[in-house]
Amino acid sequence: MRPDPVTNGDFAAALVNRDLPAPAGLHRSGTRVARRFAVYRNNVTISLVDALAAIYPTLQNLVGEDFFRAMANVYVRDNLPTSPLMFTYGASFPAFIESFGPARDLPFLPNVARVERAWLDAFHAADCAPLDPLALADVAQDTLPEIRFEPHPGSHLLRLPHAAGTIVGRDRAGLPLDGLDPFQPEAVLITRPAYDVSVTVLTAAASAFIGILMAGGTFAEACDAAESADPGADIAGLFTLTLTSGAFSGLRLPETGIPG
Description:
- With 260 residues, this protein is mostly helical.
- It folds into two domains: 7-89, no CATH class; 107-260.
- It has helices at 8-16, 24-27, 31-55, 57-63, 65-78, 93-99, 109-123, 164-172, 204-214, 219-229, 235-244; strands at residues 148-151, 156-160, 186-191, 198-202, 248-252.
- Helix 3 crosses helix 5 (65-78) and helix 4 (57-63) crosses helix 8.
- It starts with 7 loop residues before the first helix and ends in an 8-residue tail after the last strand.
- 31% of the residues are buried.
- Residues 1-6 have low confidence and may be disordered.
């Protein structure tokens, strides 16, 4: 009798879920084939867990390797890769952690994962030269309030209820977390102006200022937002941050709307 055909869906589901038996067609093909499938299944799971560990190293450092790999194993069961590019895997891992019961005593973990995910996305973003500060030399002073800035493809602004940016920054720099309050809210700017990803924790004024510009607002609107967040905001300093952070790649002039 010819073995039952094995569907792609059955094969994929059984690959990552040890609670499922090997597809029936493999069983009927012989014990050796079923054993080979078991080895293959184990290798696939290990590879996906390893990929998550590479994407979220700070997260693993915080909870320990055993806890992380156990959590990642649960995630892998229901989340197969949808792209051959492994750096795209695990985008939903931060949301999964929020619903993972054993991690609920550490509510800042999902936001640490979000910063690490944004770090990886910035690293793999399209290459693009950052904004040259000299580009402003051709902008007339009376039109400066109405200029808009084009966000760099590698830029991300995260506003989080935990000190996730500081945690990731310290951990990746090999610095201790002693004395850090993880429940301190932070705004985190992640950029990749050249080859290295930068993680910057912003003040309330800087968060408001950069946030408006990244959303397509004008320079004047950004100034108003910064002063609302902090009446003593250093607008000149925020302008310098805008030009040097690598968060933007170009200007949009008010007269024509054509990128400058």
